[in-house]
Amino acid sequence: xxxxxxxxxxxxxxxxxxxxxxxxxxxxxxxxxxxxxxxxxxxxxxxxxxxxxxxxxxxxxxxxxxxxxxxxxxxxxxxxxxxxxxxxxxxxxxxxxxxxxxxxxxxxxxxxxxxxxxxxxxxxxxxxxxxxxxxxxxxxxxxxxxxxxxxxxxxxxxxxxxxxxxxxxxxxxxxxxxxxxxxxxxxxxxxxxxxxxxxxxxxxxxxxxxxxxxxxxxxxxxxxxxxxxxxxxxxxxxxxxxxxxxxxxxxxxxxxxxxxxxxxxxxxxxxxxxxxxxxxxxxxxxxxxxxxxxxxxxxxxxxxxxxxxxxxxxxxxxxxxxxxxxxxxxxxxxxxxxxxxxxxxxxxxxxxxxxxxxxxxxxxxxxxxxxxxxx
Length: 375
Prior knowledge:
Blueprint: E1 18-29, E2 34-46, E3 49-57, H1 65-78, E4 94-100, H2 110-118, H3 123-126, H4 130-135, H5 139-142, E5 177-183, E6 216-225, E7 237-245, E8 254-259, E9 268-274, E10 285-290, E11 301-304, E12 316-321, E13 331-339, E14 344-348, E15 352-354, H6 359-362
Parallel strand pairs: 3-4
Antiparallel strand pairs: 1-2, 2-3, 4-5, 6-7, 8-9, 9-12, 10-11, 10-13, 13-14, 13-15
Organism: Ataeniobius toweri
Keywords: Signal
Pfam families: Exo_endo_phos2, SKICH
């Protein structure tokens, strides 16, 4: 949405265990018709743990603190995902909420705010930070955690400078850009009464469906800003977190492997085997990716897994890849099985080398030394 972007990067080793990814958005600008304000989000299952990331841009100006809270709550209520057990943002086990929340510092005058910043007495400003103040009043905000604001307010700066706004408006500095997180509270099985005070250990081991669940621990390692960045009138805010979790599964859904040597001089073979029953589809495909690829659609070529019938579990299927679709030069590649229903890669082969084709020199793709001889 107009100026709102959310990118998620993952190491390749994690890809087969990132499943059911979905995205959505909410417009809040001009009564919901304009996307200059609002939120974009992505959710997925990470080793069986439901995680959601949400980037937002809320209403501006000092006097709109209540409107920002209303927009925050509206986004939580209206964002829907087509997942039966986690249809809403707050259904996820972990939520990271971040962006230009636009909360300001109330009461204190410009001179006091700037002198507190210059003197390193940031703690004098915390009690008048609108988000901190609103968290004391709004129960749903109290579920979100935030690290200490031990970095200078990130708004508003002169562009390409480290000085706060010197324009005629002289906007008061504020921590507009924030990173919050929430771990889903645990609850008792449906129909059970809460335990007596002092006997709540049992409640902490159950989820809403009454089954034991693996815990997840979120630790914030750093929460800071980058003052050297000068393109915007905001300074970027960075949060570094460690997630400790017990994997609910650690086996890929599909085993994919290349057969023999691959080069563009002959058709190549691959095999795949579905290891677990899942919602496979004839629209699933296996892509050939250069190691370091950026997205599931960043393939060199692909083959459909099946034209008609889907294979049985543990059935080994062989597919052929046309030699004209195979890269001519030697590089490292990987095969990935993409599930249309799960919207993710659910099987990756080991890295393998594609050999340089004899056609590469003919087509002038091989670099030459100073004597004009092919290397």
